[in-house]
Amino acid sequence: TRIIRAARYAARLNFNLDPESLMQIKSKIGLWPWNWIGSNLPNEAPPALSTRLSMELSLLFNKEPWVKAITNLQEWGALSLLDERLQKDQLWERRISLGNKLGTQLLTAFISGAKDPCALSQRLQLHNSQINYLKQATDIKNYFLPIIESKEYLCWKPSRWCEEIEGKNWLPEAISLVICIETPLKVPLLKWLKE
């Protein structure tokens, strides 16, 4: 949590860490005791740590220049504390900006790029509604995978899109998250969402 706080303050006050502080951060990341893998249950994380991490990240996205703060965390290697895919992610800024335009919570849009966004959202003890949006976005993405591979969707009329989306009772918030993760279906889903 202190590493996230350092990124927040550095972004807010526009300063860089001195080499010794940066070395301490990288050392602590290397000693991180909870090496999270997909088979770990989210509730195995210490509850106080989960709550504090979530709180620090929420403050980062709601009150700070988040682009600079997340850039700091990525440069320091600190996003690996959350998820290795987020650490390597080069599209996070575009995903969060698009999520912001679509009314998605910034932290949720950020997490949607994780290897297992549902597990990470549970681990961070996000609100149930955000966890459900991420679960449903994963379901939507999985539903459309074979359709994307077959390119069947390329000849769909708007009425077919409405049937597919509305027939499954998918929530607009979950559709927004699918749009944020840059699938080939971004344009038709965005068109459905707007209309």
Concise structural overview:
The protein is mainly α and 195 residues long.
Report the average pLDDT across residues.
90
Backbone shape: elongated
The helix/strand class is mainly alpha
> Terminal Cα separation, in Å?
41 Å
Tally of helical runs: 12
Give the H and E element order.
HHHHHHHHHHHH
Strand content is under 5%
Low-confidence stretches: none
Counting DSSP E segments of at least 2 residues, the number of strands comes to 0
Helix percent band: 55-70%
Largest sheet: none
As a whole number of angstroms, the C-alpha radius of gyration is 18 Å
Give a description of the structure:
The chain is mainly alpha-helical and 195 residues long. It is 67% helix and 0% strand. Helix 6 (92-101) packs antiparallel against helix 11, helix 9 (128-150) crosses helix 11 (172-180) and helix 11 packs antiparallel against helix 12 (186-194). It contains 12 helices and no strands. The model has no long low-confidence stretch (mean pLDDT 90).
Layout of SSEs?
Blueprint: H1 2-13, H2 19-30, H3 47-63, H4 66-76, H5 84-88, H6 92-101, H7 106-111, H8 117-123, H9 128-150, H10 158-166, H11 172-180, H12 186-194
Which keywords apply here?
195 residues; mainly alpha; 12 helices; 67% helix; 0% strand
